[in-house]
Write a structure and sequence with these properties.
alpha/beta, globular, two-stranded parallel sheet, 6-stranded mixed beta sheet, 3 helices, single chain, Purple Acid Phosphatase, chain A, domain 2
Length: 180
């Protein structure tokens, strides 16, 4: 699924594939018990990316898809993480777009996730919610009964990160973060 940095030409390329489904902006049936809702956008960033949207626009996009009756347990796959969690912390930037360092040399971190995504998780309580966007915030957290994941990213040095999650009809049984 494309993320906020990706040009919309990526959608065309993915939609022409015979081997995958671009789930962006859709609800896709995974099995008879689970539906995957995906959205590859982000709230506004300092970098003015092609898929940056206001919180109001994000809320409207989520609502237009999920306010219809959806049977089965939901799994979210939303690029931008929910605001105010362990998985939406990024370095605070100064006016020159450089990370601010605290005494001792550590980055000063701030929450940069989406308020609208958090509200959607609170409202719909999916079983799992997968996120990315904030490369520095690899981790797991919980909102209500929803377990939220961000595998993080180190693509700039050639490391692909992920998370494998084992679920049954009722709950998340186990998970493990991966990299390679």
């Amino acid at each position: 699924m494309p993320g906020n940095d990706d040009s919309y030409i990526v959608d065309k390329i993915l939609s022409e594939s015979k081997y995958l489904i671009n789930p962006d902006g859709k609800v896709v049936e995974i099995d008879s018990n689970h539906k995957l809702f995906s959205l590859g956008i982000s709230n506004i960033t300092p970098w003015k990316c092609p898929r940056d949207f206001t919180e109001e626009e994000i809320s409207a996009k989520i609502g237009s898809i999920l306010n219809m009756a959806i049977e089965g347990q939901l799994i979210f796959n939303i690029h931008v993480p929910p605001y105010g969690t362990h998985i939406d912390l990024a370095p605070k930037l100064n006016d020159e777009m450089k990370p601010i360092l605290k005494p001792g040399g550590e980055y000063e971190m701030v929450h940069v996730g989406s308020i609208s995504v958090r509200a959607a998780i609170e409202k719909f309580q999916p079983k799992i919610s997968f996120h990315g966007h904030i490369h520095e915030s690899r981790g797991v957290d919980k909102i209500g009964s929803t377990i939220i994941f961000n595998p993080g990213s180190e693509y700039n040095i050639g490391i692909l990160r992920g998370v494998l999650v084992e679920v049954d009809e009722k709950k998340v049984r186990d998970y493990i973060f991966t990299q390679g």
